[in-house]
Design a protein that fits this description.
There is one protein chain. The protein starts with a strand and ends with a helix. α8 packs across α16 (547-556) and α9 (320-327) packs parallel to α16. The radius of gyration is 27 Å and the shape is globular. The chain is built from 16 helices and 27 strands. The longest helix has 17 residues, at 79-95. By secondary structure, the chain is α/β, with parallel strands linked by helices. The chain is 25% helix and 22% strand. Strands 15-14-25-24-23-16-17 form a seven-stranded mixed β-sheet, covered by helices on one side. A five-stranded mixed β-sheet has the order 2-1-5-3-4, sandwiched between helices. A five-stranded parallel β-sheet has the order 20-19-18-21-22, with helices on both faces. The structure holds iron/sulfur cluster (SF4) (3 copies) and FE2/S2 (inorganic) cluster.
């Protein structure tokens, strides 16, 4: 479509036909306040805070939904517009309880910011608002209906982007309320705790338990980094105050569209395990605190004595740089947690698919942000989902058909009629998925089992490990649960050194524990399932040795 000419507050710009006045204002560098609009979702024109004067229009128009036309002239700061904005704010502040000084989100609230901007220092109308419930049934965040302005951002993001459609409305007019499913407590609903609604809520209605009261917007800094908890490698932003991460937000600019799953958003701040801060060496009374020099000297002497009987096991939490250093240790190196995947996943292609075939993998539990592409494809675009084999339960509510592995040929036959098919799997389904994709003649989206499994493979660490060697050096990072058989084998090794961020579960089997930074505390790169090398950036300075430095100091002693 050809561009059209629009003038906003005397600034002339050319924008594509079909743009809204708000889009054009952005191009012109003119700021129009918004509340219900959000760049990640479709506008609905619900709150009316963005009203502007459009020449030749009888009444003010909402900038977020009003389409531009050639020659249009718009004014965003006339008296009429400013009065209307103040009127809308007066209504919003009067409708429910917005006593900011008692609100956990005071200082980080878009409604409050707009009130300050508009010079609103009191409300014009009686505050006859009722006392509304607070729903604290979800583990990580709370819904306070008293602060809700019914902008519906939460409903739309959950439906449009997460594809989960948990949220909706009940009642009409002043009695309208946000509900989960058919009005059940949020904690009992179909919510998957991704927290995307929390991130877009403009007020204190959705409130993060961990960061409430810990920092106003002006006191925090944001550090962009990458989640390493699974191979999807979602872009994230650490929200930091006083050298402490208080919250994790999704990065809207990343290829993962600002989405995170429960593990990536809430896992790091709610991990109940004991952090490993000090090196520990096993003595007569069990693990005891030791100096870095003593702990590293102990590990080095065991490695030297073992000759080629050394095995290094590396988890997907290792950065590319750490993987390289670990691979250079004596003996052989293998994966601590599973297997790498062949080839790169095209996440953008998932949004084009009209048929997903998922093999032996639960995209409702693993690779959840990739699973959200399936959810929104099926529920918003009429795509179909076939589940093949075992362990695909998390998305069964979205599936058109389910096949056992020995009936995979029937799924292939079904898929032949579709236009754009993607066969998706983790390591357990990879072989069958490749065969099926060949039969269908379509692309695969194969995921490794651990965060940086692509980067580990590039460093030459590809195979799963049998920990049968006498001496094992384990790079665990933040890894919690590991395969039972492997853990047992490790417990039978002569000597085990573990480079870990947490004491558990390693204290039972480790002879030496070397504390390593978490993902939020280290810098380096990771290679995501898309095959992209992404930056991992330290959000805080711990003054403790970095993961590569630990391995290099050890290597220097060998
Ligand atoms: S946490 Fe995620 S799934 Fe749950 S209601 Fe919010 S957006 Fe929807
Ligand atoms: S909970 Fe927040 S995002 Fe949802 S409608 Fe209320 S104010 Fe808007
Ligand atoms: S899908 Fe994977 S990479 Fe993304 S937030 Fe969740 S755990 Fe992290
Ligand atoms: S932002 Fe335009 S109507 Fe709400």
């Amino acid at each position: 479509m050809p561009d059209v000419r629009v003038t906003i507050d005397d600034r002339e710009v050319m924008v594509p036909a079909g743009s809204t006045v708000l889009d054009a204002a952005k191009v012109a560098g003119v700021d129009i306040p918004t509340l219900c609009a959000h760049p990640a979702i479709e506008p609905i024109g619900a709150c009316r805070i963005c009203l502007v004067e459009v020449e030749k229009q009888r009444v003010l128009q909402p900038a977020c939904t009003f389409p531009v036309s050639d020659g249009m002239v718009v004014h965003t700061d006339t008296e009429k517009v400013l009065d209307a904005r103040k009127f809308v704010l007066n209504l919003l502040f009067s409708e429910r309880n917005h006593f900011c000084m008692f609100c956990q989100m005071s200082g980080s609230c878009e409604l409050q910011d707009l009130a300050y901007e508009a010079g609103l220092d009191h409300w014009r109308y009686d505050r006859a608002f009722p006392k509304l419930p607070v729903d604290a049934s979800r583990e990580f965040f709370v819904m306070d209906h008293n602060r809700c302005i019914l902008c519906r951002r939460c409903i739309r993001i959950c439906g449009e982007l997460v594809g989960n459609h948990t949220l909706g409305l009940k009642n009409r007019g002043a009695n309208t309320m946000i509900v989960a499913d058919l009005d059940v407590p949020f904690g009992d609903s179909s919510c998957i705790s991704c927290g995307t609604c929390l991130q877009v809520c403009p007020t204190g209605a959705l409130m993060d338990r961990a960061s409430a009261f810990l920092g106003e917007e002006k006191e925090i800094t944001r550090v962009k980094s990458t989640c390493m908890a699974c191979p999807v490698g979602c872009g994230l932003e650490y929200v930091v105050r006083d050298n402490r991460v208080i919250r994790i937000d999704g990065d809207w600019d990343a290829s993962t569209k600002g989405l995170l799953c429960e593990t990536g958003r809430f896992g790091p701040l709610h991990d109940q395990r004991t952090r490993a801060y000090q090196p520990m060496v096993k003595g007569a009374a069990g693990l005891e605190a030791a100096s870095w020099d003593d702990a590293l000297a102990k590990v080095a002497s065991e490695i030297k004595a073992a000759g080629d009987g050394v095995h290094t096991l590396v988890s997907g939490f290792a950065t590319n740089e750490a993987a390289k250093a670990l691979k250079a240790l004596p003996g052989c190196a293998g994966l601590l947690d599973g297997a790498a995947a062949d080839g790169a996943v095209d996440l953008a292609a998932l949004d084009e698919a009209d048929l997903f075939v998922v093999v032996n993998t639960d995209f409702g539990a693993d690779y959840q942000v990739a699973g959200m592409a399936i959810r929104r494809g099926v529920s918003n675009k009429g795509a179909k989902l076939l589940l093949v084999g075992e362990g695909c339960d998390g998305l069964s509510a979205y599936a058109l058909k389910t096949y056992s592995a020995d009936k995979a040929a029937d799924a292939v036959a079904f898929a032949k009629d579709a236009q754009s098919v993607v066969v998706m799997a983790g390591p357990k389904g990879a072989c069958l998925a490749k065969e099926m994709a060949e039969g269908i003649g379509c692309n695969t989206a194969l995921f490794g089992s651990a965060g940086n499994s692509q980067g580990l493979a590039a460093a030459g660490i590809t195979c799963a490990c049998e920990a049968t060697k006498k001496v094992c050096y384990v790079y665990a990072g933040e890894t919690g649960a590991i395969d039972e058989g492997l853990f047992k084998a490790l417990s039978e090794a002569d000597f085990v050194a573990v480079q870990t961020s947490y004491v558990e579960p390693w204290a039972e089997i480790a002879d030496v524990i070397l504390p390593t930074p978490t993902t939020a505390e280290k810098s380096g790169t990771t290679t995501t399932a898309e095959g992209k090398v992404k930056q991992v950036v330290a959000a805080v300075d711990t003054k403790r040795p970095g993961e590569v430095e630990i391995v290099e100091r050890l290597s220097a002693l060998l």
